[in-house]
Amino acid sequence: MGENTETYRRLVELSPDGLLISQGGFVVFANPAAARLCGAAQDVILGRAVFDLFVPGTELWRDHLACVMDGRTVAPFEHQIV
Questions:
Q1: Alpha helix (H) ranges present in 1-82?
Q2: Who contacts 82 (Cβ-Cβ below 8 Å, separation ≥6)?
Q3: Among 68, 22, 74, which residue's Cα sits nearest to residue 48?
Q4: pTM
């Protein structure tokens, strides 16, 4: 692993903001801050469907995610985590 890669990995791991990475609709990475927000260990979050992490009624979340996936910009928003 290169020095830059390790630097970025540490930055993400130490970020006070919760960061999730999903692939195919499932969480493949969650930093410690994301785990704290969800009230669960990182390994519990991994492999879960992204939408399972949010309180039912996620239409707004789905719309925002679709915009991001299309490369469009969305305004910040809040949604309750399960």
A1: 3-14, 32-38, 42-45, 59-69
A2: 38, 52, 53, 54, 55
A3: 22
A4: 0.74
